[in-house]
Amino acid sequence: MYYLYTLKDPITFDIRYVGFTKRPKTRIWEHIRDAKKGVKTHKSNWISKLLNESLVPILEIVIEKENRDDIVIEEIKLIKYFRDNN
After folding, report:
1. Calpha distance 4→19 (Å, rounded)
2. 36-72 pLDDT, tens per residue?
3. Total Cβ atoms within 10 A of residue 74
């Protein structure tokens, strides 16, 4: 099973990231680990700022699909939706 998820700001509840994974419980901690390691991405910088305030992003599962190709299509559509509407 593949999961399409969003990462939300824990203060504003704004969606800041869209991704997919087979292991949502593990994936959030991978994002946090990358931020702690100093990975240079917009997402990691944002998570690092949250960590400095003793906060973490909220992972919300949006869609579940059996097939990887199907979840990739859904991810592309959701990212396009947010880009077009923000």
Report:
1. 6
2. 999 999 999 999 999 999 999 999 999 999 999 999 9
3. 18
Answer positive or negative: Cα dihedral of 37, 26, 84, 68: positive
Specify the pLDDT at position 36.
95
Long-range contacts of 17-22 (CB under 8 A, 24+ apart): 17/43, 17/57, 18/75, 18/78, 18/79, 18/82, 19/75, 20/71, 20/72, 20/74, 20/75
Do residues 28 and 43 lie in contact, with contact meaning Cβ atoms separated by under 8 Å? Answer: no
Q: Residue type for 60, please?
A: E
Question: Cβ contacts of residue 70 below 8 Å, gap of 6+?
Answer: 2
Q: Report helix, strand and coil shares of the chain as percent, to nearest 5.
A: 50, 25, 25
